[in-house]
Structure formats: structure tokens, C-alpha cells
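ok here's the first one, seq then C-alpha cells
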Amino acid sequence: MVGQVVLVIAALGIAIPTLWVFVASFKDKSEFYGSPWTWPKGLHWQNYADAFVDAKLGQYFGTSVLVTVMSMAMVLVIALPCSYVLARFDFPGKKILKLAVQAGLFINVNYIVVPIFLMLVDADKLLYNIMPNGFFVNNVFILALVYASTSLPFTIFLLQDFFASIPKDYEEAAMIDGASQTRIMTRIFFPMAMPAISMSMLFNFLTYWNDYIISMTLMTGNNRTVQVGLLNLMQTQKAATNYGRLYAGMVIVMVPVLIFYAVVQKKLLETSTMGGIK
């Protein structure tokens, strides 16, 4: 009973502020001078149009979507086979590799963002004669590469433990049927690991989408991500006391997170006993 009460209180603590932001995003500028708990007199959709177009949040939104999709694709392509090999095979140096992956879990990328930035600046200096505008700084692909590389330790660590927990019977049955290691990995283990893959992708998505420090450091001008654009919008609208645009910008940033969670939540609840052995 106590646990249920705690869960209800926690849920209300999340739902009420979220609902309040959503409602406030439809208010006119003059409605913010009264009680903050009053409902809007009408649906002021212009707040969303102003935030999306005038504040360039739409452009920043597109940059964040592109960077997030590329980062998640890179992580999946690298982490899935790496974690499978570490979990199912024995080879020289395996313990060292596993130790290196575990050590990477303790590195906070926010603490090394300045060295990363300086390395990219030095790399651009080497290419100055060929590419005067630079390549490594203010590049969405490089930002996605930084995101993916810094999230690999967590992703590999999570998937590796899941692959190791799958019984060998599945693998032996597939080998008896003549399946190759590649086919066993892609057709048996990857589908069975969908709950773990979905969980890792959810955490990675939240990390990429909500990042501010790395994107602010590595990106400039119109290539900034939505979190940096939201901060700029907050500063501008606070000075102009136009809070409707500010809350509309917050809703725009929250919607992809809610949609992505709704897509992967079913996979998060699935068990690892998909399929069977014939």
C-alpha cells in the first residue's frame, strides 16, 4: 500500500508540471499576468508558430533529429556485434577489452568536452589549406560521432550481459540446422535481445536529445541543436515577457521523447524467452 502511494505521488509530480506546461503553451501573453492556474481562454496556436519559425526552433529541431538518428545508427552498428562477440566467444585479450569497456562507464563526457574540442580544432588546422571553413567543428556528423563513441561503453556493457544470459541451447540448435555464426547472431540473438536493445536506445536517445554542453561547444550558428535553441528562446522570451512562446518551445522539445518512449515501451516489457527450440 505504501509503495502504491509513493508511485501515485511520483506520477503526479511528473504529470502535473507536464500538463501545466502544455496548458500554458496555449495562453496569450496577457493571460500570464493573472493566476498561473487558470485555463487559457482559447487555443493560441500562434505561440507554436512563433517558436518554431521566428525563434528558429524548427531548424534546431531538424538538426537534433538528424544528429540523434545518426548517433543511434552508429551505436547499433558497432555495439551489437561487439557485445555479441564479447559475450559468446573466448579469445586472447577478451578480459582486457571487457575491462576497457567497464572503465569507459566511469568517464563523463562533459568533463572531457574541452579536450575533444581542442583536438577537433587542431584537426581543422591541418586541413586549413584544403578546407578553409573547417570540417571537424560545426559538423553534424562529427557531433553524432562524438555522441556515439561516448555512449558505446554503456551500450556494449548492457547488451553484453544480456547476450551472455541467453542459453547455449539456442545457439547449438541453430548450428545443428547449419546456420552460420552471422546468421545465428542476426536471426536469433538480435531479435531475442530486443528488450535490452530498446532499453539501451531509450537511454541513448535521452542522452543525445537532452544534451546541451557538447552541442553548444562543438556546434555554432544555425547548426545548433534544439536544447541550445530552447535556452536561447528562454532568454529571449523572458526579456520580452512572452511566456507563451517559451512554453510552446518546451512542448516541442518534449513531444519526441514521449513519442519515442511510446514506441519502445512494449519492447521494454518483453522477456528474453522469444521463440523456442525445436
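and now the second one, same deal
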Amino acid sequence: MATIDAISGYYDRGGEVARLHAGRGRLEFLRTQDVLRRRLPAAPARILDVGGGAGAHARWLAADGYPVRLVDPMPLHVEHAGAIDGVDAVLGDARRLDEPDAAYQATLLLGPLYHLPDRDERVTALREAARVTAPGGVVAAATISRYAGLYDTLIRGRYPEPEVRRITDAELVTGVHEPFDQDLFTLAYFHHPDEIAGEFADAGLTGATTYALEGGAWLFADRDGWLEGDERTQALLEALRSVEEEPAMFGISSHLLTVAVLGGE
């Protein structure tokens, strides 16, 4: 439970409840939704949303007609998610899911992998996701790019601070983001893009496809009206979709989404 203890202080503040609906978080939300709507089996397939937070994605999935069970280690998140129509929310750990084998047509890990610094634990979480997913079903997992922390501290103007610079430079090498300042996130692991396929394969998930969610647009999309829900937003989403599978975009994208079909090649 050490990982959960390390992140609980950050998430107990409640910032995750609204994060994906404002600022740069909205682009992450819209692009995750965009990819999942193209890759998920048709409703009413059963979905397990592991580490689903306060239910930002569970809400639209339920509205789209999917029965959703959300599992999260934070009581505050479970309380919020459980109030959403069509969502069953329970406490749980991605590494030890209290769910039967092959019970879901899709399993989502849109947060757990970037809170597990240990590779074996990340593979364990992916194996658990595969275990509870029926043959032919979908497993989708989000990761944070290795270089997101560097660009985030530059955008915030905090990189010149000695301690911020020390931690940021170290995570470029190790991938581990230390929880030294909760304004700059909590304990996390930032994946090098080349690592992801190997972790999926070691969990028995072959033939996975990785998508660059925001590309470089997360550096500017919350400015100049790009995310106000008009034609500019749609144009931005279409532009990002056109390069989402280009490996050259993986390093600059803040988040990556990797999708595998159980039993796929």
C-alpha cells in the first residue's frame, strides 16, 4: 500500500475532481474520449474503469450506454463517481482487482500506470486488466511521457528553481517523479515511449497500438480559444488525430494512450 499512501495526500485535496474539465486537462480529456470512442466495443459492453478517479470518463461512458464499474483507491473519488447515474464505484487497487475473470469487454487504466514506479507492479496491473477482460475485449492504459515534467516546469516558469530543476533533471533519466511539491504533482512514473510496448507484451497483451493524445498542442491549447468547444476545437482534434500514431510525436505529447485487443496480434 506504500504507493497509495504516497499519493493520497495529493488526491485528498480534490483537485482531480475537476482537473479534466479545465485548462490543459480538457485537451487530455477530449483526446482520450476521441480515441476510446473509436476503439471500444459497442455499448452496452461492460467496462471496468480502474483508477477512474472521480468519474470524469465514467460519466460520458455511462451516458453513451455502457454499464461502468469504477475502481479507485481514493474514498473521495469513489464518493463522487458513485453519484453518477449508471456508474458503480468501489474502492480497490489496480494490482489486485477483486473482480472475476473475463467479466468485462473493456478495461481501462487511465491513471494507475503512472503511479507505479516499479516496472513489475505496472506489469502486474496490466496482467490484472487482461485477466478481468473477456477474449476479444479491449485493454487501454494511459501513460505520461518521460518529457512532460520538463515542459510542464518550463511552462510554469519554475524550472530555474534549484530543487525543481534537480528533480526534473533526475526524472529525465529515471522516469521517477518525486513528490517534493504537490503543486507539481505527486509520486509518479513518466514512461519513455519505447518502454510501453514491452510492458504490455510482458502482461500478455500483444499487438498494442500507442496514440499520442495531445501531441505538442498541450503547450498552447488552453490559450487563444482552442478549447472552447467551437470549430477551432474540432479542427485541433482533427489535426491531432492525423498524427496520433506517429512515433515522432510520442515524446512531446504529455500523455500517451496504448490500446490492445485481448488475444490480438
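notes on #2: DSSP finds nine helices and nine strands in the chain. Residues 2-261 form a domain with the Rossmann fold fold (CATH 3.40.50.150).
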